[in-house]
Amino acid sequence: MELSTILQYAFAGIKIGSIYAMVALGFNIIYNTTGIINLAQGEFVMLGGMFTVTLAKLMPLGLAFPIAVLAVAIVGCLFERAAIWPARRSSVITLIMITIGGSFLLKGAAMQVWGKNSFPLRPFSSEKPINILGAWVQPQVFWIIGVLAVVMILLTLFFRFTLTGKAMRACAANRAAATLSGISVDRMVLLSFALSAGIGAIAGIVITPVTLVDYGCGSMYALKGFAAAVLGGLGVSAGAVVGGLTIGLMECFGAALPFQGASSYKDGFALLILFVFLCAKPSGILGRAAISELKKF
Amino acid sequence: MGKKNLFGLASLVVVLLVVPHLLGNPYYLGVLVWCGIYGLVCMGLSLFMGYCGQISLGHAGFCALGAYISGILTTRFGFSPWPALGVAMLASLLVAFVVGLPTLRLKGHYLAMATLGFGMIIFVAAGGDPFGLTGGPSGFWGIPKLSVFGVVLDSEVKWYYFVWAVVLVCLVALLNIVHSRVGRALRSIHGGEPAAKAMGVHTARYKTQTFLLSAALGSLAGSFYAHYVGFVNPHPFGLNFSIHLLTMVVVGGMTNLWGAIAGTALLTILTRYFRVFMDWGVFFDGFILVIIMLVFPEGLFVGAARRLGGFVSRKRSTGVPGQASRQAAGGG
Amino acid sequence: MDNILRVESLRKNFGGVVALDGLTFEVQKGAIKSIIGPNGAGKTTLFNIISGMYRPSSGGVWFLGESITGSPPYVTAKRGISRTFQNLQLFANMTVRENVMVGRHCRTKTGFLRSALRLPGAAKEEKRTAAEAMDILRFVGLEESAQRGASTLPFGKQRVVEMARALATDPKLLLLDEPASGLNLRETEEIGRLIQKIRDTGKTIIVVEHDMSLVMAISEEVLVLDHGRRIAEGPPRSIQKHPEVLRVYLGEEIPHAQSPES
Ligand SMILES: Nc1ncnc2c1ncn2[C@@H]1O[C@H](COP(=O)(O)OP(=O)(O)OP(=O)(O)O)[C@@H](O)[C@H]1O
Ligand SMILES: [Mg+2]
């Protein structure tokens, strides 16, 4: 393979990998405060895209973006209050079914509202590809990478330096102790849903200009985002980014493998990686086995 | 297996014999054929989820394996339907074994995601067509009719009697299992894995065996599907179907085989006969799952009876005992 | 030799935490041996290793002269080791009798196929299992609660059901993890009598317990653990005066009739 071809694939991998990373971050935030894997995470991505597509018809993109993120965050809160909170004492299996149910509910509702078509969104800046060492890269890719970087930085600042962020980390470390020290765990859980819904929405908004959005696209994002989260070690935010980029790159280079129909199996590669990792090393590349043993499932 | 079950079986047989005479249109009978085909999968899933306390979000994958292998072997390799069905089932068992061996060590979310991933892999594999076998996204036609003891199943009525005979046989066998040492062992896993282990239950083996059994039933249903419809394509075997299966099991009450059958019949009749869902299928599956889990975790029938009458003693809880999967070994 | 269990240089780490630190002891056949020690001393971890729930980091366990180090629980159960849990672990989805019947699991053998076809042998075995479960419930005095849901019983009775379930496996060695915790004075005395009654049927029993009056009343020997190490071992009277034990319990007299954790 030539350098330019390799770069071409690498950029494609980083582009989609950044999205998986953001989905994985969303998984981690909720997982850390509640121990729940929110299977409706992918629908937040889809809703982010859908809301923006609709809003962008009425207002400039710069305005539609934050409003859409806010709207999805509110959906996240409603979902938590209506479906998760009442079941907070239920078994893991029950919670899994509730979140997968929530995922289908949102997906089905989106189908009723927007129909079954795919929708485009105009790129944030020019559509003219940029040539980098012979590879042609859409400017939107840089938007995606930039947004991921900003999200990561803001999250780090939030968790490190704000009182609320520290309180959320305290919940993650030890719920009982957090409650005793006066932290309202309920509020933190609600906040974690808002936060991860918002991040999911951001991912959906930045990716829509390159991939379109339809009502059913959430499941794949969720599955691959989860693969990324597991790969990086569930609950570890740096792991989410590493895992997301790894999955994205493997998927894009896998599609280039020299056998017939390789590209139609590109989704299969990510799933196989997920599968192998789940079975062989569920603690991921960065997570420690001991940690995952201690965490309740 | 107890008087209640014998009475239930007798009533079911009577209903099954009477119903065809009440329905004029063969289309309506076709709806009941679907109930039977789905019922096969859902019974297995009920055993795996309700009794064993595990979760699978990928059982559509086993149906796909059954349907595709039956279809491919009969149309492209000249197999007759029954040997093809047998090969399909063996292959599904093999796949279930390979998938289940590492997967069933996983708990809760990991198991859910691994099975979800498995289902998607099968779906993606069926949609691609590198060897010219699966027909890609549009699938392929011309799967021959199934015949039983020389009778070709070429009408809804014949399919109806055939499928429900198979369902009955499987139901009796599963009821026997459930009301035995094995069934108790399975429920003990659901009730609390550490304690089950301490009592000498080989939990890993039981989980695998139950998974295999449910995979075999899924494959069987898939093969029937292929021969009944005559063509297969990937579309019906996606995530939506896996979740639809889950919904059917849960609606009727997953801790009860009868619940699985009742839930399957209820949803299938609603969707196919009254066509109430149409495009709302995805939405309603999600809605039902959430509502059932929040309000009637024991299923609609038990739950509603309990709410309405209150005559079912609240104390005789046979329902979904939570916490089970959260408890660490031994505890301390 | 008349020891039924021998534990040698047993170590267990959880990440950085050393739960057991080179523990060695023996248990005589037919004895009631108590293990005491402050919270986090490693008592439950010890039970988890003996019963095969955890693998030790190093060291070994011998049962009736044979090594069972690292054997999975379904093997140890069959060999004759059974246990109860510190935090009750009854099967809430079953009746009391069914709970006890699960205990018979390792002594019966009907599998999927034989039960699916309901072969005569399977039906007969099922009947026998039910009868045996009733016998055990009679032995512990719970026969009239047999058909009740296990989780509907009062807490004290649930502890007894757990013991009945453990007994149903026909153990030679019974591990009881804090059988009296959460029980009132009268219930504690009853449990003490039941434990002695079980021992009198020829079984060996190890009891982990914080309730000193119970420990003093029933045990032939006491082993004191702290930080995963043995700090004293001997008959109850001598343990009560052991300086090292007094130091571990904060220099106080060993509390009587109530658990130190309250
Ligand atoms: N599964 C586990 N993972 C990590 N650490 C554990 C685990 N089980 C026990 N420990 C640790 O090992 C040490 C010993 O615990 P153990 O439960 O054996 O104590 P114990 O003597 O039974 O205490 P208690 O009287 O409170 O029951 C403790 O520090 C505990 O935190
Ligand atoms: Mg303990």
Q: Strand percentage of chain A, roughly?
A: under 5%
Small molecules bound in the structure, each named once: adenosine-5'-triphosphate, magnesium ion
Provide the number of structural domains of chain B: 1
Label the CATH architecture of chain A.
Answer: Orthogonal Bundle
- In the CATH classification, which architecture of chain B applies? Orthogonal Bundle
Please tell me how large the radius of gyration of chain B is.
Answer: 20 Å
Spatial strand order of the main sheet of chain A: 1-2
Tell me, what is the CATH class of chain A? Mainly Alpha
Give the CA-CA distance, first to last residue of chain B.
38 Å
> What composes the largest sheet of chain A?
2 strands, antiparallel
What kind of sheet is the major sheet of chain B? Answer: 2 strands, antiparallel
Q: What characteristic shape of chain B results from the CA principal axes?
A: globular
CATH topology-level name of chain B = ABC transporter involved in vitamin B12 uptake, BtuC
Structural class category of chain B = mainly alpha
- Which chains have the largest interface? A-B, 50 and 56 residues
Q: CATH top level of chain B?
A: Mainly Alpha
What average pLDDT do the residues of chain A reach? 87
**Unreliable residue runs of chain A:** 289-297
What is the CATH topology assignment of chain A?
A: ABC transporter involved in vitamin B12 uptake, BtuC
Q: Average the pLDDT over all residues of chain B and give the rounded result.
A: 86
Structure commentary:
The complex is a heterotrimer of chains A (297), B (332) and C (262). In chain A, 73% of the residues lie in helices and 2% in strands. Chain A has 297 residues and is mostly helical. In chain A, α1 runs antiparallel to α10, α2 crosses α8 and α3 packs across α8. A two-stranded antiparallel ribbon of chain A has the order 1-2. Chain A has one domain: ABC transporter involved in vitamin B12 uptake, BtuC. Chain B is mainly α and 332 residues long. Chain B has one domain: ABC transporter involved in vitamin B12 uptake, BtuC (Orthogonal Bundle), CATH 1.10.3470. Chain B is built from 13 helices and 2 strands, in the order αααααββαααααααα. The longest helix of chain B is centred in the middle third of the chain and has 27 residues. Chain C is α/β, with parallel strands linked by helices and 262 residues long. Chain C folds into 2 domains: 170 residues, Rossmann fold (3-Layer(aba) Sandwich); 80 residues, no CATH class. Chain C has 10 helices and 10 strands. In chain C, β1 and β2 form a beta hairpin. The C terminus of chain C is likely disordered. At the A-B interface, α4, α9 and α11 of A face α5, α10 and α12 of B. Adenosine-5'-triphosphate (ATP) binds next to β2 and α1 of chain C. Magnesium ion binds next to α1 of chain C.
